[in-house]
Amino acid sequence: MEMILVLILFVTNIFAQTERSLINSGNKKFKDKKYIESEVDYRKALDKNKESFYGTFNLGDALYKQEKYSEAAEEFNKALAKTPDKEQKAKVYHNLGNSLLKAQKIPESIEAYKNALKLNPKDIDTKYNLEFAKLLLQQQQNQKQEQQQQKEDKKEQNKQKESQQNQQQQNQQQEQKISKEDAERMLEALRNEEKDVQKKLKKKAPARITIEKDW
């Protein structure tokens, strides 16, 4: 039994060293800015130990450097459950906030920074990032309000334009109607005038001249 126990401990130690060596290898490649290769090492380390905090945390960093911000955020969320240490959790929340901010999830990033500051209130970088995220959120909200106002203004302009067009159309129809009525009145006046002329001509018709026979 003692021999078996030693063997188990020996095998466990080999796996632990393999995990650490893979993380160390990944860290070296990370420093050399070989982020894809470092990601591979961190994933291999996690294959050896899925509960590795450093493997998960560093994998999140490698993904972040590759601009895979949503994937990085997932790894940082996993890392939170793999450590009870407040200082480590504060760092995870800080990096989580950065990933969410880059992923344009600004309200979520603000919450992450706040959680980081609850664990480490003296972190200047986190304080700065929190204020920056708040500023971005305010700008985003202002932009949405401006866009909404522009949309409403355009809608009102279109409504006024349509109203003006309808009024112009009504005016044109009214003018056409008046012109037609005027034309009918003028025609009727001409007819009446012609009748008057005919009457006058009949009244002034020359008397019939008769020539008497002279015998």
Layout of helices and strands:
Elements: H1 2-31, H2 35-48, H3 53-65, H4 69-80, H5 86-102, H6 106-119, H7 124-203
Description:
By secondary structure, the protein is mainly alpha-helical. It is 84% helix and 0% strand. It has seven helices and no strands. It has helices at 2-31, 35-48, 53-65, 69-80, 86-102, 106-119, 124-203. α1 (2-31) runs antiparallel to α2 (35-48), α2 (35-48) packs antiparallel against α3 (53-65) and α5 (86-102) runs antiparallel to α6. The chain is rod-shaped, with a radius of gyration of 47 Å. It starts with a helix and ends in a 12-residue tail after the last helix. Residues 1-11 and 205-215 have low confidence and may be disordered.
CATH architecture of the domain at 11-71: Alpha Horseshoe
Residue share in β-strands: under 5%
Please mark out the parts with pLDDT under 50 across 5 or more consecutive residues, or reply none: 1-11, 205-215
Largest sheet: none
Secondary-structure-based class equals: mainly alpha
Q: What's the overall geometry? A: rod-shaped
The helicity comes to: over 70%
What do we call the CATH homologous superfamily of the domain at 11-71?
Answer: Tetratricopeptide repeat domain
Radius of gyration: 47 Å
CATH topology tier name of the domain at 11-71: Serine Threonine Protein Phosphatase 5, Tetratricopeptide repeat
CATH class of the domain at 11-71: Mainly Alpha
Number of helices: 7
Helices and strands, in order, run as HHHHHHH
Kindly report how far apart the N and C termini lie.
Answer: 185 Å
The overall average pLDDT, rounded, is: 84
